[in-house]
Design a protein that fits this description.
This protein has 115 residues and is mainly β. The chain has one domain: Cyclophilin (Beta Barrel). The chain is built from 2 helices and 11 strands. It has a 9-stranded antiparallel beta sheet with strand order 3-11-1-2-10-7-8-5-4. Strands 6-9 form a two-stranded antiparallel sheet.
């Protein structure tokens, strides 16, 4: 399963995990949202919760796409150790240029592969 992340005209392919959360994420595509910024991530909240199966990954890598709690979509643009638990949605296969794009203001789009 795959999806596309788009910021302005730049796109990245997201390889989706084989789990219920990723399938639910895919079913909600396409969508576009303003994401808030934190030190290593951009995130947005959904009104409707996702199914989840959280675990503590110990280390987050640039390009990870995760669900925090049951309604917070997070795209990471930094790598770091974490004490928090997430449910994996997927990961960006080639995150070149991702950090620079995510640090800009603007809307982030998620699309189904092939659309």
């Amino acid at each position: 399963m795959e999806a596309i992340l788009r910021i302005e005209e730049k796109t990245w392919r997201i390889r989706l995990a084989d789990n219920e959360t990723a399938r639910e994420f895919l079913s909600r595509l396409p969508f576009q949202a303003e994401f808030d910024v934190m030190e290593h991530e951009r995130y947005c909240y959904f009104e409707e919760p996702f199914p989840r199966n959280p675990h503590r990954p110990e280390r987050i890598e640039i390009g990870d796409v995760m669900l925090f709690m049951d309604n917070c979509l997070v795209v990471f643009y930094g790598s770091f150790d974490t004490p928090y638990s997430y449910t994996r949605i997927g990961w960006i296969e080639n995150p070149d240029g991702l950090k620079q794009a995510l640090l800009k203001d603007g809307r982030i789009s998620f699309l189904r592969e092939g659309r």
